[in-house]
Amino acid sequence: MATTRNFMDAISCGNLEVVRAVVAVRDERGIPRLDLNVGFGEAGTALLYALSINPANVDVQIVQVLLNVRDHAGNPVVDINHRGPFGLTAPHWALKSEIHPARRRRLLQSILDVRGPLGERIVNLRAYEAVYPLLRAALYIGDIHCLRILLDARLENGEWALNVNQVWRGTTLLDDALATPFGADQIMVITIREAGGLCKRDLPLDQQVELRAPLVPVRRAIPAPVHGAARIIGNVAGSAQQFNQNPQNTHDDSVLQTVKGSLAALDELYGADLDEEKAITEIEALVGNFDYSSLVIDQSLSDAEKKQCAKDFFALMKRHLDFLHVHSDLRFKRIYALMWKAVIDDNLDVYPDDIRRTIDPVLKKAPSRLVQIKKSSLIEKFIEGAREYRAMGVDLNICDGGSINKMLEGLNCAHTSIIICTGQQSIKPAANQVPASTLKKLLKEKPLRLQRKILSSWDVDDEKSEAAEFRRASVSVIDDDLQRQFGTLLTEDDRNVITGQYDYFPLPVMHDGLHQLVEQIQKIPNDDINASRQVFIDRIREQASHVYDESDRSFQDEYQLLSPEMNYFNKINEFVLEISKIKEKKNNVAHQQNVALLRQKAKDIWAVNKENLKENYIDLKGHLRKFRMGELDEAIEKMKDYGALLKKSDAFQKGQVALDLATRLKEKASDFFAKDEEGMKKDYQEFNKDFTKTLNSKNKEMAQYRLAWGAILDNIVIALTGVGILFISVKLIYSKMTEGRALFFSQQKKTEGEAKVENIRHAFANLSSACAA
Question: Rounded to whole angstroms, what are the CA distances from 27 to 16, 30, 36, 73, 583?
Answer without folding.
Answer: 21, 5, 13, 13, 57
